[in-house]
């Protein structure tokens, strides 16, 4: 196959069908993967980012797989290692799997306690303890399976799990709400203009707010680069969308968020979410979460609204 190196889109064409097949094949594991990432990170935004990075790595690594592999374990392993690597980069202290004297392991049902303590886990448990405890207690992996995922002995996993349980019992509940981030006057003005254009269903009005080199990330699906491209594709499709909707600004999990609200069965529901980054009064990046059903559901719960049902793929 001859590929024009000046036009990598040609190389991407045959990959799109393969990517769609991959996305469809892992749909059964997407809800639990997102929930796992949420409980690891403690933030719906960070969870969605971790899921996205996990799926990109999983797909890009397919050519390197030469043996049968369990899809769920494969995804959870990548998510776990990716998150631990992120923790290393910010110099979070890691626990080792190696112990000279392994503590005794006694099976105890702590799943309800773990679920109720997720906020505390995020703040207090070291990364490896958190990963192992979540995999075993919440997502049903056996200690042996977790050991296979991380290349550790079953005994080492049990020891680490025991330490996590002990630590969990020591943690005192400390409820903390999300801080409301201050929005600059520049952000406020640009967001207001975006909302006004959106609610007029005016794609040209929105395009005027975009930087010439804007990037639009339709999370899990596609990326667009440049104002002309965004105007020709995403904004044109949005202008033709038959759903009646309006946009509002809400602080969701610490970030000013464009919430698209539509009417569904005579009640209001979350239709989409956008995060925008602004520089010098122009929108330089857009993240579009249309194909992120778990995140949309979490936002709807936060806003006490319904949510539009959504697929993972186009």
From TrEMBL:
Keywords: Sigma factor, Transcription, Transcription regulation. Transmembrane segments: none annotated. SUPFAM superfamilies: NTF2-like, Sigma2 domain of RNA polymerase sigma factors, Sigma3 and sigma4 domains of RNA polymerase sigma factors. InterPro entries: NTF2-like_dom_sf, RNA_pol_sigma-70-like, RNA_pol_sigma-70_dom, RNA_pol_sigma70_r2, RNA_pol_sigma70_r4_t2, RNA_pol_sigma_r2, RNA_pol_sigma_r3/r4-like, WH-like_DNA-bd_sf. Residues 116-168 form the RNA polymerase sigma factor 70 region 4 type domain. Residues 29-89 form the RNA polymerase sigma-70 region domain. PANTHER family: ECF RNA POLYMERASE SIGMA FACTOR SIGG (PTHR43133:SF65), RNA POLYMERASE ECF-TYPE SIGMA FACTO (PTHR43133). NCBIfam families: sigma70-ECF. Interacts transiently with the RNA polymerase catalytic core formed by RpoA, RpoB, RpoC and RpoZ (2 alpha, 1 beta, 1 beta' and 1 omega subunit) to form the RNA polymerase holoenzyme that can initiate transcription. Belongs to the sigma-70 factor family. ECF subfamily. This is RNA polymerase sigma factor. It comes from Robertmurraya mangrovi.
